[in-house]
From TrEMBL:
Ketopantoate reductase C-terminal domain mapped to chain residues: 177-291
Reactions accelerated catalytically: (R)-pantoate + NADP(+) = 2-dehydropantoate + NADPH + H(+)
SUPFAM superfamilies, per the entry: 6-phosphogluconate dehydrogenase C-terminal domain-like, NAD(P)-binding Rossmann-fold domains
Enzyme class name: oxidoreductase
Listed name of the protein: 2-dehydropantoate 2-reductase
GO process annotations (BP): pantothenate biosynthetic process
Coiled-coil zones: none
Role according to the record: Catalyzes the NADPH-dependent reduction of ketopantoate into pantoic acid.
């Protein structure tokens, strides 16, 4: 029998993965926060995926973290700031050699999770897929994209990539996953905070060309210092390309702030500034950007960590 995918976090990406795996006949179990959420989930009758305007519901079985069934494969689909605690709760249930797939954006949470579960293999992911919730237990598949998966310490691809093929989840195994994560982090640092501070769509940054370019210079310096020259290559051109290609969109950080949600700042700009300080690298514009963003978040009553 094939290994069950436990999905931790029934949010946008967790639901997007759970429904597609379930649709392909792959064994999936959802882990929700507590008994109250489990009751609410059972009352809803399943997870609903809205794709190309049509909705389908999948009665994915669910449980709470307290359940005692062993876990061999865990998709961690929480926000970066919840991942470590959420995984720590499940640590006693992990089998020896269990595999965790970490969907978190940015950097920092992956190492924190790995330190909590040294017995497990942690695989990081970087995704350009887009999804949002339009109701409890309902997700809209908003942007088709790609997910890169990799394990910096162990280059061999796992066999369960076949489940992703069956589920039609576009993916690629990457032996350079850290480079991908750093590149995405740099893009997010150059774009997302400025869209929040200027209150604009990504395309609005075309009016702030110099500010973006200055950040790209500092981010390039940081990536080089971190031993990530490939992630630094032509960064400014790539940032400009993304700004143009996504001109009509609001960045994920802009949307979090607009919906009064906690941002993942500590795992994006915060992580970049922390690593720069560790390398004794002086990046004044990046630090100033973080200060401005923190002040802005405080002024809105939002957490800055
Ligand atoms: P989300 O907020 O929609 O979902 C997170 C879910 O995790 C929530 O339902 C929350 O209740 C649950 N959760 C948190 N702690 C838990 C716990 N202890 N036990 C059980 N459930 C718990 O977040 P999301 O948008 O799916 O994002 C997840 C990660 O994926 C983020 O790091 C995000 O940056 C990244 N990402 C998201 C998208 C997207 O389009 N949504 C795209 C690329 C990357
Ligand atoms: O990933 C993004 C986000 O909004 O989080 C893009 C579109 C690349 C902007 O940084």
């Amino acid at each position: 029998m094939s290994t069950t995918w436990h999905i931790l976090g029934a949010g946008s990406l967790g639901t997007l993965w759970a429904t597609r795996l379930a649709r392909a006949g792959v064994a999936v179990r959802l882990i929700v926060r507590d008994e109250n959420r489990l009751n609410a989930y059972h009352a809803a009758g399943g997870l609903t995926l809205v794709e190309h305007g049509s909705a389908s519901t999948y009665a994915v079985p669910a449980e709470t973290p307290d359940s005692d069934a062993p876990i061999s494969r865990l998709l961690v689909a929480c926000k970066a700031y919840d991942a470590e605690h959420a995984v720590a709760q499940l640590a006693p249930r992990l089998t020896p050699g269990a595999e965790l797939i970490l969907l978190q954006n940015g950097l920092g949470s992956q190492d924190a999770v790995a330190a909590r579960v040294p017995q497990a293999r942690c695989i990081s992911a970087s995704s350009t897929e887009g999804a949002f919730r339009d109701g409890d237990w309902r997700v809209v598949f908003a942007g088709h994209g790609y997910t890169w998966l990799g394990d910096a310490g162990h280059p061999v691809a796992p066999i369960w990539l076949d489940d992703l093929n069956a589920a039609g989840i576009p993916h690629e195994w990457s032996t350079e996953i850290l480079t991908r994560l750093w590149r995405k982090l740099a893009l997010n640092c150059a774009i997302n905070p400025l869209t929040v501070l200027h209150g604009c769509r990504n395309g609005g940054l075309q009016d702030h060309h110099c500010e973006v370019a200055t950040l790209c210079v500092e981010l390039t310096e940081l990536l080089d210092r971190c031993g990530q020259p490939a992630a630094a290559e032509d960064l400014q051109q790539e940032v400009e390309r993304v700004i143009q290609a996504t001109a009509a969109n609001y960045s994920s950080m802009y949307q979090d702030v607009a919906h009064q949600r906690r941002t993942e700042i500590s795992y994006l700009l915060g992580h970049a500034c922390k690593v720069a300080a560790r390398h004794q690298l002086n990046l004044p514009h990046l630090n100033q950007l973080q200060q401005r963003l923190v002040t802005h978040l405080h002024s809105l009553g939002l957490p800055s960590d």
